[in-house]
């Protein structure tokens, strides 16, 4: 019988971000698969457990922690980057396929809990597509609150200028292409906002929705260096960081 998998978006860090649809899927799950990324990120697994404890009415479920395959770190602007990511995803798919076959009975229901929304800069769906070519599974996707939504809500700002588009991009793309209008930047370990003109508006947030949340805003000239310093200190203290920011060029509309 076909095994069923829920991919559940669990929000940016606050358990209150979990939707009613996600709660229903949590209560429909027998086995939760989570990636073990090492001791610095143990609190990411702990928060997943906390969400299950809070919302699952009859705790008969199991957690299966999977070793995260090593990833070859290539410069994101180098020619080997995409191949390194593809190799890492393929290795993850093998680990997931083996675990699903070993830990989830035929006809059973498992789940992966995705930070934010599974559709936005998350590899879960791509990897499950590969798993489905080797294991008999069917999966659905429950959307979640994104870091972008949490960021703009905490700063109490609209995402876009009136009638204007918003780009969602990465730090590498920002460095390569520059900024026009408004852009949300994710996956930026290099503080690429520092390459923007000093009068560029920035709204930054890290660990959104958690007790460790950090927020800063102003112009790049006013707060850019301070954001970089605070970010580095927080990453050193926690061993990891998840942050995002909204940029708005000074020529944007109101």
From TrEMBL:
Domain of life: Bacteria
SUPFAM superfamilies in the cross-refs: Tetrapyrrole methylase (SSF53790)
One Pfam family in the UniProt entry: TP_methylase
Enzyme Commission number, as recorded: 2.1.1.152
Tetrapyrrole methylase domain ranges (all copies): 4-223
Metabolic or biological pathway, per its Swiss-Prot or TrEMBL entry: Cofactor biosynthesis; adenosylcobalamin biosynthesis
Alphabetized UniProt keyword annotations: Cobalamin biosynthesis, Methyltransferase, S-adenosyl-L-methionine, Transferase
GO BP: cobalamin biosynthetic process; methylation
Gene Ontology molecular function, alphabetical: precorrin-6A synthase (deacetylating) activity
Protein name as it appears in the record: Precorrin-6A synthase (Deacetylating)
Provenance organism: Mycolicibacterium novocastrense
Lineage of the species this protein comes from: Bacteria, Bacillati, Actinomycetota, Actinomycetes, Mycobacteriales
């Amino acid at each position: 019988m076909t095994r069923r998998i829920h991919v559940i978006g669990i929000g940016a860090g606050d358990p209150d971000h979990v939707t009613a649809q996600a709660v229903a899927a949590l209560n429909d799950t027998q086995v939760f698969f989570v990636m073990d990324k090492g001791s610095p990120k143990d609190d990411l697994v702990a928060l997943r457990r906390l969400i299950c404890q809070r919302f699952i009415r009859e705790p008969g479920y199991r957690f299966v922690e999977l070793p995260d395959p090593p990833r070859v770190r290539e410069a994101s602007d180098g020619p080997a980057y995409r191949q390194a990511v593809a190799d890492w995803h393929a290795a993850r798919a093998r680990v997931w396929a083996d675990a699903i076959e070993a830990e989830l009975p035929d006809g059973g229901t498992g789940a992966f809990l995705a930070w934010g929304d599974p559709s936005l800069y998350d590899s879960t769906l791509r990897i499950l597509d590969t798993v489905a070519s080797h294991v008999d599974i069917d999966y659905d996707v429950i959307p979640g609150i994104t870091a972008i939504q949490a960021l703009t809500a905490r700063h109490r700002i609209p995402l876009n200028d009136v009638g204007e588009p918003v780009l969602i991009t990465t730090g590498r793309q920002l460095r390569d292409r520059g900024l026009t209008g408004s852009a949300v930047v994710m996956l930026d370990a290099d503080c690429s906002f520092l390459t923007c003109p000093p009068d560029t508006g920035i709204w930054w947030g890290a660990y959104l929705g958690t007790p460790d949340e950090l927020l800063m805003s102003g112009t790049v000239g006013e707060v850019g260096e301070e954001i970089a310093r605070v970010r580095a200190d927080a990453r050193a203290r926690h061993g990891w960081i998840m942050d995002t920011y909204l940029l708005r060029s000074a020529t944007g509309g109101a």
